[in-house]
Write the structure tokens for this entry.
Amino acid sequence: AQSVTQPDIHITVSEGASLELRCNYSYGATPYLFWYVQSPGQGLQLLLKYFSGDTLVQGIKGFEAEFKRSQSSFNLRKPSVHWSDAAEYFCAVAGSGNTGKLIFGQGTTLQVKP
Amino acid sequence: DAGVTQSPTHLIKTRGQQVTLRCSPKSGHDTVSWYQQALGQGPQFIFQYYEEEERQRGNFPDRFSGHQFPNYSSELNVNALLLGDSALYLCASSFWGTAQETQYFGPGTRLLVL
């Protein structure tokens, strides 16, 4: 069965520091991978997605993620965090045969210290 | 260009009642998916509608039903409400195709069942 694991429930970083949020997936075939961000009281906003090709994908707001098939991982990174990045981050996977069913991880809450 | 809209934003019901949530997709989109997000959890897929038919369904009981109208808007109905149905209900729209189609999420409807 498809699944997504985000090992870190809560992460705190200082403003200006680098960030890496971990995501591990379980899927038998080539997955389609996504990172979404959710601010308090808001819906989900897509940060980036991976379907094929270059394993390093760039997204909005300065985020990037790297797909590592050997590790079944799709970690999200940002070189310098801003206070406005404080939010909940969700990794999700979709199977190639599905046209919309996203499987989400539990989420990682990011707190940014001034 | 309006994004995905949902109504109402908040709702309070009592156990055993029925509720209807509404979603209007982003302009140009023809597919609507519904997700349930319990507090502290990632969203869980309920079902997806395209061409006024339910195309996929997650692991939710028959108390959860839906409808899609000719203008692509959608409703989510929940009968015989349980305390455990308290959650944020998210609607996502996309253009029917493959899993590569990005889903755009609305702000959600927060349902509280007392």
